[in-house]
TrEMBL record, chain B:
<keyword id="KW-0732">Signal</keyword>
<protein>
    <submittedName>
        <fullName>ABC transporter substrate-binding protein</fullName>
    </submittedName>
</protein>
<dbReference type="InterPro" id="IPR000914">
    <property type="entry name" value="SBP_5_dom"/>
</dbReference>
<comment type="similarity">
    <text>Belongs to the bacterial solute-binding protein 5 family.</text>
</comment>
<dbReference type="InterPro" id="IPR039424">
    <property type="entry name" value="SBP_5"/>
</dbReference>
<feature type="domain" description="Solute-binding protein family 5">
    <location>
        <begin position="83"/>
        <end position="460"/>
    </location>
</feature>
<dbReference type="InterPro" id="IPR030678">
    <property type="entry name" value="Peptide/Ni-bd"/>
</dbReference>
<dbReference type="Pfam" id="PF00496">
    <property type="entry name" value="SBP_bac_5"/>
</dbReference>
Amino acid sequence: MMLAHVIRKLNLLILTTLVLSVLSFSLVYLFPGDPLVNLTGLKSISQQEYAEVAAMHGFDKSYLHQYWYYLKGLLVGDWGQGFSSEIPLWDEISQTMPASIELSAYALFLSVLIGVPLGFVAGFQHNKPTDYGLLTASVIGYSMPIFWLSLILILVFSLQLGWLPLSGRISLLFEIPHKTGFVFVDIFLSDLDYKSAAAKSAFQHLIMPTASLTIVTASIVFRLTRRSLIDVMSSNYIQAAYTRGLSDFQVVMRHGVRNALLPIIPLFGMQFAVLLTNAMIVEVIFSWPGIGNWLIQAIYQRDYPAIRAGVLAVSMLVIILTVATELLAKLINPTQRGNAYAES
Amino acid sequence: MNNAMRERYSLAQVCWLISLSLYLSGCSDIGEDVVPKEGVIYCSEGNPLTFNPQLDTSGTTSDASAHQIYDRLINFDPLSGLIVPGLASSWLVSDDGLTYTFQLRRGVRFHDTPYFTPTRTFNADDVLFSINRWRLPEHPFHNVSGGEYPYFSSLGLRDVIVDVKRINGYRIELILKQPDSSFLANLATDFAVLLSAEYAQSLGPEEKEKLDRYPIGTGPFKFHKYRKDRFIRYAKHNDYWQHDLAPEKLIYDITPSSSQRLAKLMTGECDAIAFPAHSELDTIRERADLRLDEKPGLNVGFWAFNTSKPPFNNPKVRRALAMAIDKNTLIEAVYFGSAVNARGLLPESSWAYQADLNDINYNPVLARQLLNESGIKEGFTMNIWAMPVQRAYNPDARKMAELMQNYLSQVGITVNIVSYEWTAFRERLKQGLHDSVLIGWSADNGDPDNFYRPLLTCSAIDSGTNRAMWCSEQYDSFIDQALKYTETSQRNQYYRMANQLIAEQVPLVPIAHAYRYRAHRKELQGLIINPFGAIRFGDVQKQ
């Protein structure tokens, strides 16, 4: 039964990816300019080279052929090159994507670490001063525009107090060889003699972007958890547990936590999409060299191949994560396995 | 020539400004203990187009390579403005002014990098290669990387040089067609860099462009890595011929927003920044940990009349219009006082500056009278074209135009302000569609010819730098005559006559010479503003 679910989800993943690839392929034609140039990013090539490249991408044949070549190219990492950088887009994406994932992952981890326990506290203390206090705080955190929050953090911690740097991932004086794209892993793998100093610098650079993302995301996680626990606590089996004489702590730990978390885990996965959008804004403000920053630069410069590849990469990441969290939710929540289709 | 950047006022930037204005002093440096001291970080304003300044005249390109990676035969001393030896240890000009002989320095080593290992030191072949590349269209490297050498072609240097001869391994001779006393100055500009002939020969036919992308030179730094929109990394050239003082690392952190550059300077993420905005200068001055250097720049902002159009073909009308505006107020309002009133084309730092030049004073009553005499009636309408971009010589042409609109209305003239996107703007100016324009000029070398010739000679109308469309045979002959003499006092006579003519004819109204600014942290020593071109980091030290 579980295997069938996995297969169904994978099918969904593959189909969605195909639809996305069709959409991104159609962008080649929808963007202004020569479709072949939009596809390959090769702007200044001779007539002869042009003909060769056209043949290589099936431009002498039907759209279907072209799409087939496009798909093959995507699979082997031939995503074309950007207008402005003239570096293969795949290289750029594989360098910027880990930076975004790293930032978002820390933020999501911290948000869960902060949001879930606080949500339980507030849910358990429903309609009491603690609940109201936490709820108020979460409304503030939730409704603050993230760019404003980031700027306030910079104003206070960088410009006023001078504690934290305001741009980039690590001081440019450190040159960390690119291996995985995850800065701490790369520092660890490198054979530099100033590893600890580099790690310290990377950590300092990470604090403010992560904090701005966490404040907003943790508020959402908190609200989801709180709501869920309130629902669970009013259910029959909780009342039954109380009548059996269990203490508050026992009731919450044995029956509340798991039952409250199960329905919201897929929602955390959905939050990742919102988180990634916020991360893009944060990346621009903190000059974080992630995919969001890169994509926004590409949009500024009307770098069509880069926009196409960036949009495809980001949407695929979101889909993969969404499907993964749904699978995870199914894995830990047996009640949902009965649903035959994906609309859980 | 245009080395200031267009400013984009994005939302983020506005927020930056707000945050900066809220800023209170009292900051400690970030991570002083972790950041290695041997590196210098410079927050630059944009991406260089190439790493060979022969190919581009933009200041961003020369800042990134001219003095970091390369050397020239001769240099301008940034303090005195005199020509000093570079890779040529001495030189000799023949009596007829046609033959220039250069004695080259021995034992100068090129950069040793992962992509090229030199086997010999610098010699005459490198000079021949570097000059012939832009001079001879049939040269194997002439058409590499676009084949445009804008600086040399704008001055027609290709036709000035008849031949470049190798006398021996360390002596070369340049033969000119006619005497040209600005010739040495042209060889000392940022653009006359010396490349490695050996490196060029080592490149296969498919990879010739590497010469300009992965540069090899003799300068204090060697190229290490460049990522567009992110950074440029340089490493110290350990065998630099001049000294061993250069920092171990030099990094350009590419930061287009000027307010963000300032913020990074404050937190110590940059050691020096490019182009601080005029509105931020006071913030920098107030802080104990920052230094602001200022120097009058080699530039001039002016108001040019289209002298090919009536009534602006009448010098009397032009004089009247010049009298109707109060330049001091304009300078105060537009440059925030960071510029000096321009009386002529040349700024004070030029050796040909004429201190006793008369300025046209603000006199609206006389202006009205002159206009009446020339038959300009109350309610006459003209346009002022205001350039859409920010330049050192005029940081806000639009605002200046608005102020002038007000002044001119007091003498009964209605002004329409016109502006187009920058490329279209220049294109239409070249066609002469304007009545008058607010624009300016930044010079590339210290020679007065670099102001007088492109701005007002007849031939400059075609090349699109003579915004007044003014053509005077007399003026042209003064400028040409001046080049025939090497003695500055003789040249000066001709420039004085040219100044006299400009003052009588008023083809344009010089407004201001803007200061050049550079901000850096106090730990950084030895960063001197180079009025004759690009920034130099070779002598910089961090304490």
